[in-house]
Structures are given as structure tokens and as C-alpha cells.
């Protein structure tokens, strides 16, 4: 028995350190406050490295949608009912690196941010889980310890399924190298709780005003896109952005307030609060371009995988 274990240990060690690079999957955890750029950055990094991607916040958003649809408004007194609903539901994250919906633009420059679709019980809820009623309630849902435990097991299973495989590659000298595949996951507690042994932890931050302006820009272009679509279909479903009433069209200050309220709840909750992991690399992207933040994270990962850096010029 002992001999078998020793042989297995020798084999595993040899395999792990063959060609100087560990074969195990590589996990990148990206945490940070709301609208700091986690999801767009994580998706572009995953595309750049050929990794899978998991949006952990979308599972809390799905749980919130389940609560809203079942008429649950008081989370603390109905947590068990919601946990039951989460356990009976299926969530799937479709990361679509080849999607054409997310072509490079003014913000992302030359980079593509691949599309991601969220399926709750096979229904595409990607747009619905980003609506204001979900935004307002999600931090409350995410503050309950029992709900977090239910969501956490969904997140870990999805991350495992999304991991890409290790591949054999040749390095500059022509030697065969085993390059780990992996997954990028973004959220609030990925580096501290979900994957405390992640190979690379990033804490992404930006000033509250920069984050609010980015969200406002995002909302504004979405509304314009909807209005153009409605006009071309000649339906009266959506009024052009300019005709919307102020209540439908939040100001930058409203968005900043909502982000700060959510950050406060995420930082001060009892269970897995938003914290900077001690071994995280902190990146404040207030005055960084999108390309700079994506390329620097991808190169940090390459460094740690023993691969050549690609973007020292950016
Ligand atoms: N460095 C940057 N400069 C300008 N806009 C950015 C930058 N990084 C991200 N963004 C934009 O900020 C917005 C919020 O990013 P997102 O990835 O949704 O944040 P989070 O996942 O943290 O909520 C998006 O519109 C994104 O394109
Ligand atoms: N790993 C995570 C991910 C999200 N959450 C909570 C905290 C957030 O307020 C909500 C929604 O997260 P999401 O990443 O979708 O939010 P933003 O895109 O940053 O606005 O879920 C969490 O507690 N832990």
C-alpha cells in the first residue's frame, strides 16, 4: 500500500514538474467592487489565454430573480425557501468567445470582449438579471450565509466544468512544455473563499465616479441600441432614449449612489465580505486603458505559467 502511494507520489511529482511547469489547471480570481471592470476584463483575459470564464455574480443575480419571481421580498425570513428554489434550479453560463455581439469598440480598443449568456432553468435571463430591481436586491441576497453556501457549490461546479485542458506546447528553445489550461472567475470572494489557492489573484478597483460614469455610458448605449431597434421594427415598445422620463433614466449621481450602497453592503456583510486577498495583485484602473489592464493580467498569468510575456510594449 505504502509502496503504491510512494510510486503514485513520484509519478504525480514528475508529472507536475515535467518541463518545469505545473500541469494542474490555472485559476485566475478577479475580485473588486461593482463596475470596476471585473467581468469585461475577465472575459477578455480568458479569450487571450484560451481559458474558460465564470461570472460568479450572475449566480447571485439568478438567485435574486428567483426570489423576485416567487414574490419573496424579505430575504432574511424566507432564506430557506430561496435556498430550496436555488437547489431545484439549474444555472448554466455560456461563454461565447467567437460571438460577434461584442466587437471591439471605443472602450475596449482592439480587444474583443466575448459575449456570455446566463441560462436559468434553460431560460436566457442575461438581460433580466441586470435590471434595476435585481441590482437593488442582490446584495441582500448575497449577505445570507445559507444562500451563499448554496450558490457557492453551484459556482465551484460551474468553474470546474469551464476549465480548459492543459496543452503541450513548444517553448522558444523548441522544448515541449506542458501549459496548464484554466479558468478565469470574477466576483467578490473568489480569491479569499471560493479559490483561496488560485494561481493568480487580481483585485480590480477604480474610483466610484469613474465606475458610475462607465455604467452610465453602458446604460446609455444600451438604451440607444434598443431605441434604434424599436424604430427599425416600427413598434412603440421602447421610446427613443431622448423621450424617456427622468425616472427611467438614472443620472450618474444616482448610479454612483447605488454602487456605493452595494459596495458598503458587500464590504460589511458577515459572510465572505469583499476583501483584498493578502496575495492579490491590486490594479486601480481609474486611468488605465482597457487594453493595458487586460494585457498586464494576461502577462502576469504567462509569467506564472513559465511562458514568454507578450505585451511588454503596452
Ligand atoms: N479601463 C477601463 N476604461 C474604461 N472603461 C472600462 C475600463 N474597464 C472596464 N470598463 C468598462 O466599465 C464597464 C463596467 O465593467 P464590467 O466589466 O461590467 O464591471 P464589473 O464586472 O466589475 O461590474 C463596462 O462598460 C466596461 O467596458
Ligand atoms: N463572488 C461573488 C459575486 C457577487 N457577489 C454579490 C455582490 C454583488 O453585489 C452581487 C452582484 O455581483 P456582480 O458581479 O454581478 O455585480 P457587478 O457586475 O459588479 O455590479 O453579487 C458576491 O457576494 N460574491
Features:
single chain; 314 residues; alpha/beta; Rossmann fold; five-stranded parallel sheet; three-stranded antiparallel sheet; 10 helices; 15% strand; disordered N terminus; binds adenosine-5'-diphosphate; binds deoxycytidine diphosphate
Radius of gyration: 21 Å
The share of residues in helices is 40-55%
- Average pLDDT across residues? 87
Which regions have little confidence, pLDDT < 50, spanning 5+ residues? 1-22
How many independent structural domains? 1
The CATH homologous superfamily corresponds to P-loop containing nucleotide triphosphate hydrolases
* Count of individual helical segments: 10
Order of helices and strands: HEHEHHEEEHHEEEHEHHEH
CATH class: Alpha Beta
Oligomer: single chain
Q: Any guess at the CATH architecture? A: 3-Layer(aba) Sandwich
Which ligands are bound? adenosine-5'-diphosphate, deoxycytidine diphosphate
Strand content: 15-25%
The biggest sheet amounts to:
5 strands, parallel
Distance between the termini: 54 Å
Q: Strands of the largest sheet, in order across it?
A: 2-8-1-9-10
Number of DSSP strands?
10
Q: Looking at CATH, which topology would you report?
A: Rossmann fold
- The general outline is globular
Structural class: alpha/beta
Amino acid at each position: 500500500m505504502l509502496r503504491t502511494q510512494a510510486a503514485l507520489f513520484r509519478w504525480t511529482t514528475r508529472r507536475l514538474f515535467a518541463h518545469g511547469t505545473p500541469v494542474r489547471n490555472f485559476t485566475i480570481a478577479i475580485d473588486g467592487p461593482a463596475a470596476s471592470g471585473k467581468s469585461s476584463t475577465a472575459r477578455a483575459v480568458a479569450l487571450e489565454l484560451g481559458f474558460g470564464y465564470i461570472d460568479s455574480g450572475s449566480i447571485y443575480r439568478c438567485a435574486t430573480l428567483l426570489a423576485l419571481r416567487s414574490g419573496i421580498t424579505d430575504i432574511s425570513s424566507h432564506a430557506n425557501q430561496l435556498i430550496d428554489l436555488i437547489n431545484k434550479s439549474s444555472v448554466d453560463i455560456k461563454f461565447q468567445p467567437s460571438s460577434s455581439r461584442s466587437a471591439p469598440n471605443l472602450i475596449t480598443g482592439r480587444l474583443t470582449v466575448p459575449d456570455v449568456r446566463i441560462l436559468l432553468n434553460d431560460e436566457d435571463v442575461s438581460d433580466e438579471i441586470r435590471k434595476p430591481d435585481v441590482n437593488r436586491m442582490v446584495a441582500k441576497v448575497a449577505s445570507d450565509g445559507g444562500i451563499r453556501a448554496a450558490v457557492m457549490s453551484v459556482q465551484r461546479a460551474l468553474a470546474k466544468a469551464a476549465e480548459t485542458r492543459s496543452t503541450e506546447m513548444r517553448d522558444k528553445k523548441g522544448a515541449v512544455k506542458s501549459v496548464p489550461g484554466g479558468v478565469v472567475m470574477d466576483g467578490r470572494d473568489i480569491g479569499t473563499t471560493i479559490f483561496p489557492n488560485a494561481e493568480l489573484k487580481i483585485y480590480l478597483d477604480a474610483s466610484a465616479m469613474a465606475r458610475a460614469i462607465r455604467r452610465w455610458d453602458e446604460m446609455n448605449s444600451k438604451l440607444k441600441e434598443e431605441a434604434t431597434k424599436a424604430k427599425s421594427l416600427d413598434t412603440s415598445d421602447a421610446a427613443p432614449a431622448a423621450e424617456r422620463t427622468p425616472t427611467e433614466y438614472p443620472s450618474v449621481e444616482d448610479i454612483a449612489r447605488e454602487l456605493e450602497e452595494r459596495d458598503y453592503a458587500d464590504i460589511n456583510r458577515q459572510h465572505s465580505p469583499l476583501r483584498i486577498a493578502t496575495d492579490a495583485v491590486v490594479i486601480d484602473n481609474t486611468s488605465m486603458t482597457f487594453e493595458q489592464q487586460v494585457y498586464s493580467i494576461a502577462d502576469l498569468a504567462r509569467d506564472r505559467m513559465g511562458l514568454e510575456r507578450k505585451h511588454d510594449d503596452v
